[in-house]
Amino acid sequence: MKNKKLNKFQQGFTLIELLVVMAILGMLAALVLPQLMGQVDGSRVNATQTQLKAFETALETHRLDTGKYPKALKGLAENTTGKSRWRGPYLKSIPLDPWDNAYQYRVKGSSYELSSFGADGSQGGTEDNADIKL
Fold first, then answer.
1. Which residues lie closer than 8 Å to 112 by C-beta, 6 or more apart?
2. How many angstroms separate the first and last alpha carbons of the chain?
3. Segments of the chain assigned E as strands
4. 19: helix, coil or strand?
5. Distance (Å, rounded) from C-alpha 63 to C-alpha 38?
6. pTM of the entire structure?
7. Are strands 132-133 and 111-116 parallel, antiparallel or unpaired?
8. Domains of the chain, with CATH numbers?
9. CA–CA distance, 95 with 48 (Å, rounded to integer)
10. Distance CA 129, CA 123 (A)
11. Which residues of the chain have pLDDT under 70?
């Protein structure tokens, strides 16, 4: 049998070399993915705070125009009061929070409470599941 010399285009990786590279990539993914997931959750919290501030501006403008806060957030997008002083819409539509849950809104006399229940969609919680308020 003749020993054939392989030119550099015919050479390949050994199975062990491929396994080592795959192991390194797996370890890197295990370290990086949790960091990226934390960034996504932080972005959602920031987006929620931004939306709450937009609601706050719209609610205050509604109050200045009509003399009181709307009974429901729907009153920011359409005239639910029937008053001619309503100069809306103050928002084009009422968005859901970044977790696709409705914002919590309650009028209390001359003030209001507005919040998101966070990632779990229920009251209370800690970390990403914590309620987000202004």
1. 59, 69, 105, 106
2. 81
3. 104-108, 111-116, 132-133
4. helix
5. 38
6. 0.68
7. antiparallel
8. 45-133 (3.30.700.10)
9. 10
10. 9
11. 1-11, 36-41
